[in-house]
Amino acid sequence: MVNKKEKNKDTEVLILDAARKVFVRKGYDGARMQEIANEAGINKALLHYYFRSKDKLFDQIFKEAFKTFWPKIEVVVSQEDTHVKDLIKVAVNNYVDLLMKMPFLPAFVVGEINRSPEKMEELILSTGINPGKVVEIIKKSIKNGEMIPMDPRELLVNIVGLSVFPFLSRPLLSRMFWDSEEGYTDFLESRRNSLYEFICRSVLTECNKSILC
């Protein structure tokens, strides 16, 4: 027999799944609580019982998304013999995987960064992301001669920017350079390999470029 706690959890999962679908179709700004309730097959009053506003609902989706993102990177950075190319590969793949599932995320994040950077910083750090660990891997790679000398933050900004921009600019780029949405989706999927190689060839020292795989 399902107890009340399990039923509440099932309803919350149902709402979150419905919200993701609506956010994908309409984006954050275009999504409405009534449409999310309809998608979940519940009334709006019950939706508001679990999530009082669209912001709170999205915050929960955002946290869950990044809680799946960071552990995969943490596995890499926690290994003593990690090469920076492994960090680049897992970061690029994770960004592409995340944004293929949640294409509405970049526009929301950019909007929130402009409106409330403090809130976004708090939200991201609450997911357990620790940029300091990543910076240490990069510094170690530079010291060991695997990477060219550079500010570690520059590499991180390049990874994030080059991964996110094609998703953020999708409405424009897909119209200008592709005949269909499917074609642009295929481009985004194939880009993970070309982006990985592009970044590695930009930051690895000559003697380390041969280890790309």
UniProtKB/TrEMBL annotation:
PROSITE patterns linked: HTH_TETR_2 (PS50977)
DNA-binding region boundaries: 32-51
An MF annotation (GO) of this entry: DNA binding
DNA-binding among keywords: yes
InterPro entries: Homeodomain-like_sf (IPR009057), HTH-type_TetR-like_transc_reg (IPR050109), HTH_TetR (IPR001647), Tet_transcr_reg_TetR-rel_C_sf (IPR036271)
Transmembrane segments: none
UniProt xrefs under Pfam families: TetR_N
Alphabetically ordered keywords of this record: DNA-binding
Residue intervals of the HTH tetR-type domain: 9-69
Name of the featured protein: TetR/AcrR family transcriptional regulator
Organism from which the protein derives: Marinilabilia rubra
